[in-house]
Amino acid sequence: MKVAGLGFRRAASLASLRGVLAAAGGAQGVGILATLAPKACSPAFIALAEELGLPICPIAADMLPSLTTATFSERIMRLFGTGCIAEATALAAAGQGASLLVSRVVSSDGMATAAIAERTVPDMAKKVTQKDITA
Questions:
Q1: Contact criterion met (CB below 8 Å) for 102 and 116
Q2: Could you give the CA distance from residue 99 to residue 60 in angstroms, rounded to a whole number?
Q3: What is the reported pTM?
Q4: CB under 8 Å to 102, separation ≥6 — which residues?
Q5: DSSP states of 66-112 as a string?
Q6: pLDDT in tens, 60-115
Q7: CA-CA distance, 82 to 76, in Å (whole number)?
Q8: pLDDT at 121 exceeding the cut of 70
């Protein structure tokens, strides 16, 4: 499942969030929208989730320092211990073993960022034959 992580300023509009998600590749195949827990109740973020019919995954800030991101902001590193909110929340919501499909994209108005992550679980199943069972 794909997860879209969004980082945004409190004043970001629905149009800004919608635009940055489109710039990151759009909502096609995305199953969850993730952001920092305190921003998950933002009216614009909730409106985007409702518009897309997607659940929201709020991510606690204390989960972020353990996540390595592809892009880096010194300000975000000082505040949250990770390089990028959008990438880190996407990776956290996608779960262990997730990887970025789309690194941070910045909205045209500079108010929001988006990234897409996906957890790909390898098929660990092995075809078992009668010979394997009796061996």
A1: yes
A2: 19
A3: 0.86
A4: 24, 25, 114, 115, 116
A5: G---SS--HHHHHHHSSS-HHHHHHHHHH-TTEEEEEEEEE-TTSSE
A6: 999 999 899 999 999 999 999 999 999 999 999 999 889 999 999 999 999 999 99
A7: 6
A8: no
- Nearest Cα to 48, choosing from 67, 66, 26? 26
Residue listed under structure tokens 């990028």: 84
Find the distance separating the first CA and the last CA of the chain, reported in whole Å: 38
Q: To the nearest 5 percent, what fractions of the chain are helix, strand and coil?
A: 40, 25, 35
**Contact criterion met (CB below 8 Å) for 6 and 89:** yes
- Pair 15, 102: CB distance under 8 Å: no
Cα separation, 42 vs 11, whole angstroms: 9
Q: How many Å apart are CA 77 and CA 71, to the nearest integer?
A: 11
Task: Show the tokens assigned to 60.
Answer: 């606690």
Say which amino acid occupies 59: I
As a whole number of angstroms, the distance between CA 1 and CA 95 comes to 10
Six-digit token string for 29: 């195949």
Asked if residue 115 lies in contact with residue 104, where contact means CB atoms within 8 angstroms, the answer is yes
Provide the CB-side half-sphere exposure for 62 (13 A, CA). Answer: 0
